[in-house]
Amino acid sequence: MKPLFRNLFLLFGIVAIVVMLYTFDVDWDALRNRLPQAIAYLPLVVGVWIFVYAFNAVAFQLIVNSGRHDKHLRFRHAYKLTVSGFAFSYTTPFGFGGGPYRVMELAAHIGTTRAMSSVVLYSMMHILSHICLWTSAAVLFVVFYFEKMDGFLWACGGVFLAVLAFALYFFYKGYKNGLIVKLYKILLYIPFVKGYARKFYDKNMESMAQIDENIAYLHTQPRAFYGSLVMEYLGRVVNSLEFYFILMAFGTPVSFVDAVLILAFSSLLGNLLFFFPMQMGAREGGLAIIIEVLGCRGGLGLGVFTGFFTRIRELIWIFIGVALVKVGNKNLVHDRKPPVSHEGE
User: Fold this and answer.
1) Helix (H, G, I), strand (E, B), or coil: what is residue 29?
2) Cβ proximity of 240 and 259 under 8 Å
């Protein structure tokens, strides 16, 4: 990436942090009463994400290194791109910022189309791991909270299964055949947009087709495909420890299953409202609802405070991610070592 663009990303990140700190909305008087016990758990809450990002980085590394090129992305560089990429995703509407940042950093080493393919593939795998988490949580809720299931929840379960079946089919077709061209062609039928979309498509048709070919190629690499999915899913599971520690800090003992359910429901609601920067308000609402449903002591108020501490954790990691923009950019990707020859032994 050119130094100018990297500096612009750094500047944007700094501005975003300042704006978030200035607009932070919380009842400080109520928080002050709960603060002492929560402070002790804050290092654990922040530290969980060292491991979450490690799983994410391995998934991204597997995808990049499975491409048809002679370069190798090392783990420490994949970790840097992961943390910084998520920092920009958190701070932009639709989570748009992280993808372009990763593409621009990788493009100089493996080419723009391969970089875009890797980033799109990782985004798809990240979403697919969320779907796996939501499915696991639905099963866990039925098993451990069957007495809470009523007609409304069973109906919601039916809708969820239908949406799940469609999503899995969509991802299967996308991984097998690529999806960039198919999705982009939708723009060719939208009034006021189709003219500009047609010009862009005619100019970049070959590049878009190449991206789709690279996406489909991963489907022929089962180790990278399933390995990255498992790493992403494990990252989601480890993420649930964040809510386990936060609730323990507020004197509300919960099981690990409860923590998984809280994470799954709050992330589901947050992703449905993905167009909010940092999912402002959506995650807090989801946390408050699921904590109330599970019957945790503290109810809706506890959900709001839980959301607050996840924001503190996010701000810390956003700061780290923005700082990493200027670090470790030399030799980001290395040549692959040729296989060792054993001839003559």
Assistant:
1) helix
2) yes
Measured CA to CA in angstroms, residue 100 lies from 6, 34, 158 at distances of 11, 40, 37
What does the pLDDT read at residue 39? 76
Bridge partners, 73 (sequence order): 333
The answer to whether the beta carbons of residues 300 and 288 sit under 8 Å apart is yes
DSSP letter, residue 146: G
Integer Cα distance of 28 and 19 in angstroms? 18
Q: Which position has the higher pLDDT, 178 or 119?
A: 119
Region label for 11, one of left (φ > 0), alpha (ψ between -120 and 50) or beta (otherwise): alpha
Tell me what the mean pLDDT of segment 264-286 comes to.
63
How far is Cα 193 from Cα 185, in angstroms, rounded to an integer?
Answer: 11
What DSSP element (H or E) covers 71? Answer: strand 71-73
pLDDT the model gives residue 239: 94
pLDDT at 183 over 60: yes
Q: Give CA separation, 344 vs 124, 339, 341, in Å.
A: 46, 15, 9
Q: Which amino acid is at 132?
A: C
- Contacts (Cβ under 8 Å, ≥6 apart) of 301: 30
195 vs 201: CA distance, rounded Å: 10
Instruction: Give the per-residue pLDDT at 94.
Output: 56
Residue 333's H or E segment, with its range, is strand 333-335
Domain ranges of the chain: 52-329
Q: What is the pLDDT of residues 73-98, one digit of tens each?
A: 889 989 999 999 888 887 776 566 67
Distance CA 318, CA 310 (A): 12
- Report how far residue 188's alpha carbon sits from residue 171's, in angstroms, rounded to the nearest whole number: 22
> Cα(110)–Cα(67) distance, rounded to whole angstroms?
9
> CA-to-CA distance for 259 and 242, rounded, in angstroms?
8
